[in-house]
């Protein structure tokens, strides 16, 4: 295939598996299949447990269910092209299909960030005013928060496909990842991408950057409240309820910061490093989040153990 096609017949992109080692792509098939399977099983288990156990019908676990749904959706956004490259050795993706995938990947990324902010607010209310916790975060309020988070993501990401579609692509059509990202496709354009760059920067600052600041501020208030509790045991108990959420925040933002640093300042690094960092950012949190919550949250851990014990006794 001619990679230097003109804009007139440039209607597809070529995705990259393992940079410089296309013959090694089949070796990634099993690990990727395992990761996606664990993502579905882990998040599916969280959703099933929360739905089945009436004692878990509380705001914290409703937000956890929303996080699990978001993680599954984000994973499913990358699944088609991952399977296409590593399982079937088909690296080509149509222009419109690429833009569609781009929309969902960036959209669910913003949703996940918003959900983590909501969960930080949930922990703040639970620790600051535990007696009014259930009455403050009612089903209606949680539903409205979910709608706001989703609407924000759609509004923020909605212009991206149009910003990409207006650009002429007359150079190489080879992307550097196994899926379509705005910044990756943008660099292949043979026209000014100033508007795209500016919009991307503003979007990141006003969504992910602002969300990170709100989460940090929430935990400053939480820590201030906890330090005001007289009993040391109660202080530890309050902080322990935040550990799972703190881990989820770190799993999302640390790889994001790593990808950003590598993208901006790691031009000299091997393309394999860029590939690994980008895949870790998108694939690892959906796998590890349910594990973290299962290990760190006593109620969910007990419920999962009970389910497995019942199945064992039936067998």
Automatic annotation (TrEMBL):
Ranges of residues in domain G-protein coupled receptors family 1 profile: 42-293
Localization, UniProt: Cell membrane; Membrane
GO annotation terms (biological process): cellular response to lipid
CDD domains referenced in this protein's UniProt entry, alphabetically: 7tmA_OR51-like
Transmembrane segments: 27-50, 62-90, 102-121, 141-164, 198-222, 243-266, 272-293
Gene Ontology MF terms: G protein-coupled receptor activity; olfactory receptor activity
Record's signal peptide: none
InterPro entries noted in UniProt: GPCR_Rhodpsn, GPCR_Rhodpsn_7TM, Olfact_rcpt, OR51/52/56-like
Highest taxon listed in the record's lineage: Eukaryota
GO CC terms of this entry: plasma membrane
Membrane topology term: Multi-pass membrane protein
Gene3D superfamilies associated with the record: Rhodopsin 7-helix transmembrane proteins
Keyword Cell membrane attributed: yes
Pfam families: 7tm_4 (PF13853)
Record key words, sorted: Cell membrane, G-protein coupled receptor, Membrane, Olfaction, Receptor, Sensory transduction, Transducer, Transmembrane, Transmembrane helix
Family: Belongs to the G-protein coupled receptor 1 family.
PANTHER family recorded: OLFACTORY RECEPTOR 51H1, OLFACTORY RECEPTOR 56B1-RELATED
Protein name: Olfactory receptor
Lineage: Eukaryota, Metazoa, Chordata, Craniata, Vertebrata
Gene: OLFR555
């Amino acid at each position: 295939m001619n990679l230097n096609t003109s804009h007139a017949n440039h209607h597809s992109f070529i995705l990259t598996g393992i940079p410089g080692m296309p013959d090694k792509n089949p070796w990634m098939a099993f690990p990727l299949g395992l990761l996606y399977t664990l993502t579905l099983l882990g998040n599916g288990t969280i959703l099933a447990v929360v739905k089945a156990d009436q004692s878990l019908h509380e705001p914290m676990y409703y937000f956890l269910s929303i996080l699990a749904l978001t993680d599954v959706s984000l994973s499913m956004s990358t699944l088609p092209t991952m399977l296409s490259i590593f399982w079937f050795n088909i690296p080509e993706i149509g222009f419109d299909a690429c833009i569609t995938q781009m929309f969902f990947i960036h959209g669910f990324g913003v949703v996940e960030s918003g959900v983590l902010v909501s969960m930080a607010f949930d922990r703040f209310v639970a620790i600051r005013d535990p007696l009014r916790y259930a009455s403050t975060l009612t089903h209606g309020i949680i539903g409205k928060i979910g709608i706001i988070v989703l609407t924000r993501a759609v509004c923020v990401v909605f212009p991206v496909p149009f910003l990409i579609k207006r650009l002429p692509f007359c150079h190489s059509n080879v992307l550097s990842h196994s899926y379509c990202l705005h910044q990756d496709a943008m660099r292949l354009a043979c026209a000014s991408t100033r508007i795209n760059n500016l919009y991307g920067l503003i979007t990141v600052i006003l969504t992910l950057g602002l969300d990170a600041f709100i989460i940090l501020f929430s935990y400053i208030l939480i820590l201030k409240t906890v330090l005001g509790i007289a009993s040391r045991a109660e202080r530890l108990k309050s902080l322990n309820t935040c550990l799972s959420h703190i881990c989820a925040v770190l799993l999302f933002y640390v790889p994001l910061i790593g990808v950003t640093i590598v993208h901006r300042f790691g031009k000299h690094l091997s393309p394999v490093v860029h590939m690994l960092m980008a895949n870790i950012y998108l694939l690892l949190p959906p796998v590890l989040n349910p594990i973290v919550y299962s290990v760190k949250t006593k109620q969910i851990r007990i419920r999962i153990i009970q389910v497995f014990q019942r199945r064992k006794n039936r067998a």
